[in-house]
Write a structure and sequence with these properties.
Length: about 350
């Protein structure tokens, strides 16, 4: 009887233990098992995948840059994310601009593009640092360097009209500016200067003015200047305006062409006109001969020749009164003076 009682109690203990094990199944999971949905919901992630930078609004002194930050979302929704951009001048080390952009809740496990704008002076080069914050803590960062900001064209100077380039064919070396000598006098020449301007865009261009200057190569003095108004240029067409410039002969000149619109320079080009003995080119500066500024200020050529003759006569006189060793003024006259002084001294002693 006692044996049966003991067996019954043992069986009851086994049954209770089995039921307890079944009840606790799922309440405690193995460390190797995957996370449940509740755990995933609190573990959403966001990462920085790409940053793109492009020119936005460009003015004469400031360049606005559009910065697009690509964020990738995984897992449960993520809130309280902020993107910060800091722009530093690489030459001075000074911070030029800082922007902060809050991000709406990230969800759907997709990529989100966060757009911002930074403004910098239209000069120098810059480093743009991007920081991603979540709940006030930095979780991602990246940096990029940009150069050539000064080459960005302001909106007011934007035009599709260009000085024509003849490509790489047999006319590759032909300049967009050319000249011919229309007439000459004893000391002056009239140049007929023309250029080729092509509208490379898709819209008509109007309101353009061409200014051409003849600049003496040695001194940069402008000998003459002239302007020509351009009619409307249709897309894909080329205009060839021309002007007359009157310059002194026997000098070499740069022909500087400047294209204007509403008081703003929109394009420039340069060629050369060799009227003197040199062979001036755009790659080198002539060093032959000297500039006579009077040619450009109205001085009389006869006065210059007279002054040159006087100088030559003065130099000749100095040569005649020089000794063979090159010492100025020490010649026959000086020797005679010395001899007379010696004779006088001898008589005084006697």
């Amino acid at each position: 009887m006692n044996r049966e009682y003991v067996l019954a109690i043992a069986a009851l203990v086994v049954v209770v233990g089995a039921l307890s094990t079944l009840a606790l199944t799922g309440a405690v999971s193995s460390p190797d098992e995957p996370e449940t949905d509740a755990a995933v919901e609190s573990g959403g992630e966001v990462s920085l995948t790409e940053i793109t930078i492009s020119a936005d609004e460009i003015t004469g002194g400031t360049a606005s840059l559009a910065v697009d930050t690509h964020l990738e979302h995984r897992g449960a929704p993520v809130e309280n994310v902020t993107v910060v951009h800091r722009v530093t001048d690489t030459k001075t080390g000074l911070v030029e601009d800082t922007t902060e952009r809050p991000v709406e809740t990230l969800e759907d496990e997709s990529e989100r593009v966060v757009s911002s704008t930074v403004a910098v002076p239209r000069e120098s080069s810059y480093e743009i640092e991007t920081f991603v914050y979540r709940d006030g803590s930095r979780i991602e960062s990246a940096r990029q360097t940009i150069d050539g900001v000064d080459a960005l064209t302001p909106a007011y100077a934007d035009t599709d009209v260009e000085f024509h380039r003849f490509g790489s064919g047999p006319l590759a070396d032909v300049p967009a500016i050319e000249y011919s000598v229309a007439s000459t006098t004893d000391d002056r020449a009239t140049l007929d200067v023309s250029t080729y301007l092509t509208n490379t865009g898709d819209e008509p261009e109007s309101g353009l003015e061409l200014e051409v200057k003849a600049r003496q190569s040695e001194s940069n003095i402008v000998a003459d200047t002239a302007t020509a108004d351009l009619s409307t240029l249709e897309p894909g067409t080329t205009a060839s305006p021309s002007v007359d410039l009157e310059v002194p002969q026997e000098y070499d000149y740069y022909l500087d062409a400047v294209l204007w619109r509403d008081g703003t320079i929109v394009a420039t080009d340069r060629a050369v006109a060799n009227l003197g003995p040199g062979a001036l080119s755009l790659e080198e500066t002539s060093d032959e001969g000297g500039l006579e500024v009077g040619d450009f200020s109205g001085a009389d050529g006869a006065d210059r020749e007279s002054a040159a003759d006087d100088g030559a006569r003065t130099d000749d006189g100095a040569d005649e009164d020089s000794s063979e060793d090159g010492t100025p003024g020490f010649g026959v006259a000086a020797a005679a003076v010395a001899l007379l002084a010696t004779i006088a001294l001898a008589r005084r002693n006697t």
